Amino acid sequence: MIQKVLLLCLSISILFADIALQGHVELQSQAYLNHPQGKHSYNNTAFAQVEATYTNENLEAILKASAQGDYYDLKSEAEKNRRSFVRLDEAYVKYDFDDAQVMAGKSIRFWGALEVDNIVDGFNPDDFRSELFNMDKLGVYNAAYTYYTDTGELSFILKSGEPDQKMAAFPYVYYFFPANVNYDANLQSEKNRYRPTIYLSYSGSTDTQYALDYAFILQNGYDSQHYFTSDAPITSPRPTFTNHVYLVNKAMSYNTLVVGSTLLKLEALYADVINDKTVSDYYHLGLGVEHTLTQVYKNADLGILCEYYKYHTLEDGKYTDLQLFETFQNDLFLGLRYSFNEGDDASIIGGVIADLDYAEQSYYIEYESRIAQTLKLNLDYRYIEPSQTTLTAFNLLGRHQRLSLKLGYYF
Predict the structure, then answer these.
(1) In the CATH hierarchy, which top-level class contains the domain 2-410?
(2) What is the pTM of this model?
(3) Residue ranges per domain, the chain?
(4) Element counts in the chain: helices (H) and strands (E)
(5) Residue 344 has pLDDT above 90, yes or no
């Protein structure tokens, strides 16, 4: 009902005013040089996104929609990846007062500061049909009141509803489970899935010698971390796995501090699981350093990156990081970012993520550039050497090597 009202209001507004349109269309081709038996060795995908913005004095309305088409979804039933969709990402309105703002609708919020993994960015769940290393977020219905201070903003956010997370089919390389597993996308929740989740956040910055941006968030409601259960052992002919959410009290923070040419980053959270007997209380910590060397060659800058992640459960006899498919439980990232600074936003970033517990590594290098202002080119190579002794998420994927080419047109 809320969605229908919002769409009606936006449609009426559009009839009486000009709107600003922007979006992009992209084609992506991926070749999997190493992949599990029975899965596709390549994949071709088309993706489009359009955003409409209506502004009338202090009122702004946003509508954003996406569509994706997977080549294999045009083929036989056995070959389908089931990654094609039309998705409403955002549909919300906001109104600005002198020192405050109210908003309501379906939206996507980003929280975080780190390069490789934003551990506090849990407001919106992932879309399991998107690409593993750059997952899209699903929009959620929420309302917020924000009050602006001299140095920051205080927000009260009420989120209602936890969406289902549909998953690609087995032939797709990044399907999470073995071929015999049936995934039920109907989300299971501890209470009613429309039980509100409440957030209180404060973010701000300092205007001193060292530029500090900070954010603190308190949450009561459904956790961004989910877990899976099965109605039969994974070795049985056709077990069904379901996705579960549970209630927590949670404290989160993300921060950046600029010291000369060095950027220091911190993300941290602590989750107090209220009633669920399966999942433990836990904490997750991410520390990062990025030092920039300017004009190393002509106008180019070189960034040296280092990040460390630590995830830890606090109660014995409950799900561990392995059962929760947590891939950043004790990991070190070392990387470089080379920015050409020649007007086309060209850059190269790459590095290695080493799991210090399970002896596995993930390597990647990515090139991105604009062409003639409206085209964007993205090339990347990824290699994963999984654990040989422990059933991690990467162990289920197997040794993995991928080349990817993406070309997008932006308007």
Answers:
(1) mainly beta
(2) 0.92
(3) 2-410
(4) 2, 21
(5) no
